[in-house]
Amino acid sequence: MSATDDDPTDDLTVTPPKTWATGLPAVTHALGYALGQTTVRRTALTLLTVNQAGGTDCPGCAWPDPGPADRHRNEYCENGAKHIADEATSRRVTRDFFRRHSVAGLGAKSDLWLNQQGRLTEPMVKRPGAGHYEPIGWDEAIGLLATELNALDSPDQALFYTSGRLNNEAAFLLQLLARAYGTNNLPDCSNLCHESSGSALNETLGIGKGSVTLDDIHHSDLVLVVGQNPGTNHPRMLSALEETKRNGGRVIAVNPLPEAGLMRFKHPQKARGILGRGTAIADRFLQIRPGGDLALFQALNRLLLEAEDAAPGTVLDRAFVEEHTTGFDDFAAHARTIGWDDVLAATGLRREEIEDVHREVLASRSVIVCWAMGLTQHKHGVPTIREVVNFLLLRGNIGRPGAGVCPVRGHSNVQGDRTMGIWERMPQPFLDALGREFGFTPPTAHGLDSVDGIRAMLDGRATVFLGVAGNFVRASPDSDATERAMRRCRLTAHISTKLNRSHTVCGDTALILPTLGRSDRDVQAAGEQFVTVENSMSEVHLSRGRLAPASGHLLSEVAIIARLARRTLGDTPRIPWEEFEADYGTVRDRIARVVPGFEDFNTRVAVPGGFRLPNPAGARVFRTPSGRAVFTRNAFTMLRAPAGHLLLQTLRSHDQWNTVPYAMDDRYRGIHHARRVVLVNPADLEALHLADRAEVDLVGVWHDGVERRARNFRVVAYPTPPGSAAAYYPETNVLVPLDSVADISNTPTSKGIVVRLEPASAGG
Ligand code: SF4
User: Fold this and answer.
1) H or E segment at 72?
2) Which of 66, 251, 583, 686 counts the highest number of beta carbons within 10 A?
3) CA–centroid distance, residue 604 to ligand 1 (Å)
4) Residue 522: what pLDDT?
5) Is 458 helix (H, G, I), strand (E, B) or coil?
6) 58 lines ligand 1 (CB under 6 A)
7) Atom of ligand 1 nearest to the CA of 60
8) How far, in Å, is the centroid of ligand 1 from the Cα of 585?
């Protein structure tokens, strides 16, 4: 699509879903998209440095790179190439663009259209009562935001939201600004995706991160990929799984949809991937009902316990359980009560399928479980991940080669931002260290996460919203409620590279603060700067942009945050904001003194490939209150939809990066030129008396009496598990009630929404 005033309309065509991922089509699609955005020269300049040691870290996802010696010349995937091209685009959004388009007019445009307009070029303001954004100087813009912050009755009336694109240095400064200002209100996108992983892993293993390395994946006997679609969301994970297979390991995929990337992979950088049939990834595929994973792991755990009963001393790792864990007896007593009828109903699987997996587990010395939002975004997401941990602990599959937990993060530095203190509930030792380093007392009361932040804006407890990167309005659940919340604010401000829906849903005053992208060269007073990020496997490395910035008026995120801090808090010798802006190395020196594991940060990150943070669980050191890994008892839970209803999961298309669609297609699933589609099992269509391609509204069912309706979707017959459906987000976020959240983690339940399909209504 070109950057014109035309918004694409749905023009659905359907082809059979693909049975393999990547290969030559991925290369041609990526290059085609790149060349539609910018010149050959800029494309080459960016792509040749992506994920190279000392180059630009791909902002596409948090999958780790191989060691520097093992990297290809082209160390990126289709999505990474598209994402980098999308940022390096030659298209520009200027002050003239905002003169031509009112805020209301922009609000009527699609997410795809907004993104395709190009890079933001100068700060803009929408003043109270105005219908358009107008230019504003940096000084005035930052002063306006600082004045609003200082006018609040309490610092807790402000929200400082971040998405996982933010680099470590900017993230550290943002949380420092928020806490020095007086609040822990640091909601982030992790609240919306992997919070359940952090909650479960912190409780059971003493660290909210994965325990494995890329080498563990390569050399594992068995990798279970659960509730995850790596072919679209973390494509280079397929290269790692291919390596697992080549080393003799096996892969079991557990997912509601039979995704192409789980079936077969054609490596685009290898001749065998271009010319041959590629590598079969999943040795087994279990098509599970949405939310059935808890029951599956409970059944596997019961089978392991029974196998140990039958042949004592041969199945469980008794020495590990006794030396390193607690809670086994209580867990085991409960696990033995899990009934097969319940398990089969919850999972939709056959008993033999589960027993086959059990036999594979028994035959495997080392097992890894990888997962993503298919596990985390359920009401019982935390218990599900706790049960995964139980499963691994039983056979000592934590803290030895080829074994462990692997929550696969979506955004490139979402894990690093948390390490840097972007969390509304940072532990007291971190707050103490921060206070000691900078000479102030950070607030100790927990702040607001994303869902509670929306509630606070809705009822007027929060009135200033600063979003750093991301697209909060579209990433959040209950779109209508979220938009109402934002519109109630006195001021909304977004530090962004490109236009998105959040800029069109304004408080009384709204600011757009344009910033450098990760591929842009960043020059400050002390010279050219680099930033750092942490991937899904706790490796920290640097990222340096190479391109001339999209406009001479852009500031880096570090610079914007440092200047906002000076204007809000005033200059103090204890926090040298000006020095931080001039030289990011000085920020890293402070991180080294506050955040454990970052000692000698500047020196170690300069080494090609960077360094790995300590991972105590990976060394069988469990920082739980008991000092042991914790077995847990988790109540059996099953998602149900009343007769005539379906369980809906939201998902991304293949041509989409987080909330941003790059095109109207979903190549792997065979959906073309349309996004308002709902995938439904043919048997359900028949039972619901719906024809394939029928036009329907999706109507959410929730007990608060509010009608949540996603209008004008086309039904597509698709092999979803019976009783369930799937549709793209963010279009279907409107159906996720704000109050429908995971227990403990407060993560929206975007993978288990009860809906009914009604004939399409005229509205919307
Ligand atoms: S796997 Fe993720 S980080 Fe790697 S190139 Fe693809 S999108 Fe980028």
Assistant:
1) none
2) 251
3) 24
4) 98
5) helix
6) yes
7) 7
8) 26
Cα of 587 vs centre of ligand 1, distance in Å, is 27
**C-alpha 38 – ligand 1 centre gap (Å):** 20
CA of 86 to the centre of ligand 1 (A): 14
Supply the residue whose CA is at minimum distance from atom 5 of ligand 1. 76
| Cα of 21 from ligand 1 centre, angstroms | 15
Question: Which H helix or E strand runs over 659?
Answer: none
Q: How far is CA 542 from the centre of its chain?
A: 20
C-beta 657 within 6 A of ligand 1: no
Predicted confidence at residue 369, as pLDDT, reads 98
Helices 340-347 and 351-362, axial angle in degrees (round to 10): 100
Give pLDDT, residue 367.
98
Asked whether 721 lines ligand 1 (CB < 6 A), one says no
442-466 burial code (b ≥16 CB/10 A, e <16):
bbeeebbbbbbbbbbbbeeebbbbb
Is the C-beta atom of 61 inside 6 A of ligand 1?
yes
Is there an atom of ligand 1 within 6 Å of 713 CB? Answer: no
Q: 79 in ligand 1 pocket by Cβ < 6 Å?
A: yes
Mutate to test the pocket of ligand 1, among 58, 87, 413 (most ligand atoms within 8 A of CB): 58
Q: How far does residue 269's CA lie from ligand 1's centre (Å)?
A: 14
Helix (H, G, I), strand (E, B) or coil at 636: coil
* Ligand 1 site, residue 155, Cβ cutoff 6 A: no
537 Cβ below 6 A of ligand 1? no
Q: How far apart are the first and last CA of the chain?
A: 24
Cα 627 versus chain centre, distance = 30
Helix (H) or strand (E) holding 119: strand 119-120
Peptide bond preceding 730 in cis form (omega within 30 of 0)? yes
H helices present in 12-94, as ranges: 23-37, 40-47, 78-87
CA distances from 126 to 228, 420, 474, 484 (A): 40, 32, 20, 17
- Nearest by Cα to 202 from 420, 389, 331, 433: 389
Task: Name the closest-CA residue to atom 2, ligand 1.
Answer: 61
Residue 281: name the closest of 268, 267, 293, 291 by CA.
Answer: 267
Please answer whether residues 730 and 474 qualify as being in contact, where contact means their C-beta atoms are separated by less than 8 angstroms: yes
- Compute how many other C-beta atoms are within 10 angstroms of the C-beta atom of residue 39: 12
Does residue 328 line the site of ligand 1, with CB under 6 A? Answer: no
Residue pair 326/626 in contact (Cβ under 8 Å)? The answer is yes
What's the CA-to-centroid distance between 238 and ligand 1, angstroms?
11
Amino acid identity, position 254: V
Look at the alpha carbons of 192, 193, 197, 202 in this order and tell me if their dihedral is positive or negative: negative
pLDDT value for 710: 97
Residue 510 alpha carbon to ligand 1 centre in Å: 33
Which ligand 1 atom is nearest residue 236's CA?
A: 1
What tokens does 513 get? 């603060």
Task: Compute φ and ψ for 494, nearest 5 degrees.
Answer: -135, 130
CA distance 579 to 741: 42
Q: Ligand 1 centre from 83 Cα, in Å?
A: 9
pTM: 0.95
- 234, 238, 415, 537: residue to mutate for ligand 1 pocket, most atoms within 8 A of CB: 234
Q: How far apart are CA 42 and CA 393, in angstroms?
A: 49
Predicted confidence (pLDDT) per residue in 96-142, tens digit = 999 999 999 999 999 999 999 999 999 999 999 999 999 999 999 99
pLDDT tens-digit profile of 523-551?
999 999 999 999 999 999 999 999 999 99
Find all residues with CB under 8 Å of 400, minimum gap 6, and list them. 366
Q: In the block, which residue shows the tokens 């027993």? A: 355
Complete DSSP assignment for 496-510? ESB--GGGGS--SEE
Q: Collect the ranges in the chain with pLDDT lower than 50.
A: 1-2
CA gap 14, 671 in Å, rounded: 5
